[in-house]
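Me: I hope this is not a bother. Any chance you could explain this protein sequence and its structure tokens? It all follows right here:
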Amino acid sequence: MAQNDRNLQMLGLAKKAGLLAIGFEAVDTAARKGQTKLIISAEDASERAYRNARIYADSCGAICMVVPYTKFDIGCITGRGTPSTVAFLDTGLAVAFIKGLAESGHELSGKVWEFLERSADAREKKPPGGTRGGGSPHGGGSPPDKRSPSGNRR
């Protein structure tokens, strides 16, 4: 493991931000909630561990891939033993991690490239200003109606 590996640092950043599910149970829970964007398995994970990771990814529409890091490498960064599977819960961090792998020469599958393209398309369609609804940064909209179900004011 390279001490200054940017991709491993990305795992640490995601963990600190609370946007990384670490280990089977956490990944399973996040997948059931539809929160996972990218599930990664260590290169020395068992076939069973990788098969489960693929099942989790398929269940929530996430991407699953094997990364060129060992369970020990991932454990050193996350501080959680030697997890064979972790999941990014944020698209931006997942995209940055994948791009880092590509830049370091890791081959990416067609599904991973499609994920990158979908993510880029979604960013292009996002409305300018970052606001939702009525233009207010706090959600906008009008105040709730204070009428009773019969239509009379309270």
Summary: The chain has one domain: 6-125.
